[in-house]
Amino acid sequence: LIGRLNHVAIAVPDLDAAAAKYRDVLGAKISSPLPLPEHGVTTVFVELPNTKIELLVPLGEGSPIAKFLERNPDGGIHHLCYEVEDILAARDRLKAEGARVLGDGSPKIGAHGKPVLFLHPKDFSGTLVEIEQV
Ligand code: CO
After folding, report:
1. How far apart, in whole angstroms, are the C-alpha atoms of residue 9 and residue 127?
2. What pLDDT is recorded for position 112?
3. Could you tell me the pLDDT band of residue 110, with boundaries at 50, 70 and 90?
4. What is the spatial distance between Cα 32 and Cα 20, in angstroms, rounded to a whole number?
5. Which of 19, 27, 78, 115 has the fewest CB atoms within 10 Å of its CB?
6. Is residue 108 very low, low, confident or very high in pLDDT (cuts 50, 70, 90)?
7. Rg, Å, the chain Cα set
8. Which residues are the active-site residues?
9. 4: CA distance to ligand 1 center in Å?
10. What are the helix (H) ranges across the chain?
């Protein structure tokens, strides 16, 4: 079911400052900021040779990462994203195994224009898991 690690997402209080650190201090290639109103976040992607880092800041009211940043004012690792070949088949198998799929269970379009779903952190060792169909 599980494929490559697509990205590690880090919630940050200041997107420009975090992106500049990855670009100027670590010398990484970064994307332009991408607002994702449906997900309540704005993202910048840091491209690494073997995976990506997704920097996230809240967008709009009731952002799903606002509470996380209240608890982690310096920012912190928010979720891991694994690739799957067939997101509906993956969802059905995960549900059959007792994993909780967040939201209404229907995939949303994520930051790469591909369908994504999130899985409850309590079912994965305290880690919010995103699955993305590639
Ligand atoms: Co993500």
Report:
1. 11
2. 87
3. confident
4. 11
5. 27
6. very high
7. 15
8. 130
9. 13
10. 15-20, 66-71, 87-96
